[in-house]
Design brief:
Glutathione S-transferase Yfyf (Class Pi), Chain A, domain 2; 8 strands; globular; 10% strand; 4-stranded parallel sheet; Rossmann fold; 47% helix
Amino acid sequence: MKVLLFPGCKVPYYAPFNETASRRVLKTFEVQVEETEFNCCGYPIRFLDFKAFVFSSARNIALAAKKGLPLVCLCKCCYGTLRYADQLLKQHEDLRQEIGAMLQEEGLSYASGVEIKHFLNVLFEDITPEAIQKKIVRPFSGVKIAAHYGCHILRPHDVVDFDDPVKPTKFEKLIEVTGAKTVDWPLRLQCCGEPLWDKNRELSRQLTRNKFTNAAQAGAELLAVGCTHCQLQFERVREEMIASPGKDIPPASLLYAQLLGLSLGLKASELGIDENRPEWKLLWK
């Protein structure tokens, strides 16, 4: 299988360990990764300039069409944004013609048949949990893990179409192939609080603390995270909680690509775990 990787803007700058781990895991399953010089998906400007947002996504889709490859996102915001713009372009001919004329200035054209996937789609649908399980050499037997989906992989369902938005199970299945046991925790589908960080920092922190507490009460020893933004939020709030005297130490969090990579027998240094901020720097040498 060959894919075109779309790392987005935030992953390379704030969370390069996500790209490091994802590339290494895909290589393990003989997925060939190609790349090109993409632009922003358009997510940051979607409420400021609608057509600029659609054009930004459409240009990336057009670049994927030129390569003839599925577009695989590491960031869930990028995933949802690209799929939403793709849906709008398919549904509205006048918008498609206007954006198409802009693309033609660069010799590009929008194509409606480009597959837009998230990294988790590739693992679940293309590689499959059964095939993954056959390659597990260091299972996390007995480890209790709380699955944190993140909002943008589930909602809006008619756009992202990853799993049942109310009762999803795919991420738990992907975690369980590593040998771990997933826990049932009431707040698993609630927002991590990251989108509020620059608007209401205390509320943002409280939402994250609530998730930590709820996961711990359910018996989780670790949070497996599928979203870069959520992982960064969990890391920074956890660091604050650890620094506060008298506070219980919440469970650590780890991106799923890194968790899976470890269970596949890959080294921490191959998965960028040394770049993570919590004590994971020391655990998996």
